[in-house]
Specification:
homodimer; 228 residues; 2 domains; 3-stranded antiparallel β-sheet
Chain lengths: 228, 228
């Protein structure tokens, strides 16, 4: 809670009025409140310095640690919780007759039955594409004629360290028996692509990384009409 | 780890070959492995029964509990970790001259400086729109002429109980001094809309809920060209 020694909010505003940042984006020049006298040079955002790190809990889906870290300029020190989780894959699995393969399952986080893209954790040493093929087979019995990585995000950069990959799986056909993990109970829902927009709009599909997967798929296939 | 008493994988496949589910989606009829004799009636996915629940850890961003729950049909019992977190808001904040307001900040989860939509936690008793206006003001000093909710997701239905709301904030103008939380150090990056697609494709913007926010914005403004 130590006050920032060199930069009151008004001074921090001054630091925003600097040269253009990378990527074509320009730093903003926000409103200067009355009495503000910007006198500091530009002060870019910098990484915190981590002093120590302690694992407090292990679960089957993540390891929880606390980092003690401080801001190198202000000296502000805090204790930050981080979940160390394996990477995840979400699969946009399509059939040749214009269906997407979704799954319904009970989710203990939201305590609801969610309708989602097939998804799962990437095993240690496993490639994301291999994980996607395995999860698709285990959860649905389907196998794809072709698969490729089309995007990735940090599911939650604030307190989670992992990456969620999206895999586009095309030409999917049923070829195997399913193989659920203990405690899994999954229902396959073969959904006409034409039904998808309404299911997203209505909130029937609303698990975050599944929505991200659909975003990457539309992006990959040129179906995002960005404003110019 | 008790085996499912009534349904081997092959029998579970049989349960998928049932009547159409809600929403126009039909259950799939997966491949029947040789020797499979589907004899069970349809068995829909059902909620687990929770036996007890224990809070193990409190942090400023979530409360961690363990639920002991079992599948009502198979009897399989497990211990499931859940993060009780406040709702979040992500803000697509636009100016009248075709810029989007982004922020750069150090994130302890990924240990990188992320470029993101302004975002934050919804305070207890606060409406999501009010939280969005507050976070936008605190992080950037901007105020919107109009704001509306355009979508929501479960950030992680598997082990998190909260909702992430997306708010579209239009006509944003700098009106206030920023007010960072202790330990926050945020740089405002006023970005031309025309630069956005390349920044998403290149991974410069890759925090999950920010990508979801862009999805809802494109959806809201009719810019998603879904396959038919």
């Amino acid at each position: 809670m130590a006050p920032r020694p060199t930069a009151a909010p008004a001074a921090r505003l001054a630091s925003c009025a600097c040269a253009p940042a990378a990527g074509g984006a320009a730093r903003a020049r926000p409103f200067q409140p009355p009495g503000a006298r910007p006198t500091l040079p530009a002060m870019p955002v910098v990484p915190f310095v981590r002093h120590d790190s302690q694992v407090e809990l292990e679960t089957p889906v993540f390891r929880l640690r606390h980092d003690r870290a401080s801001h190198p300029v202000t000296g502000h020190e805090g204790r930050y919780v981080v979940l160390e989780a394996p990477d995840w894959v979400n699969i946009v699995a399509l059939t040749d007759d214009a269906h997407i393969i979704l799954v319904r399952q009970w989710r203990h986080g939201t305590r609801t039955i969610e309708l989602e893209c097939p998804a799962g954790m990437v095993d240690r040493g496993e490639a994301p594409l291999a994980a996607a093929a395995r999860e698709l087979r285990e959860e649905t019995g389907y196998e794809a004629a072709s698969m490729r990585l089309i995007g990735r995000v940090a599911p939650n950069a604030a307190f989670q360290d992992n990456t969620c990959h999206t895999v586009l799986a095309e030409g999917c056909r049923p070829r195997h028996a399913t193989a659920f993990d203990p405690g899994e109970d999954i229902e396959l829902v073969l959904t006409p692509l034409a039904d998808l927009p309404a299911m997203v709009r209505s909130g029937q599909i609303h698990n975050g990384m599944g929505v991200v997967a659909l975003f990457w798929w539309l992006q990959e296939t040129g179906r995002l009409d960005w404003p110019r």
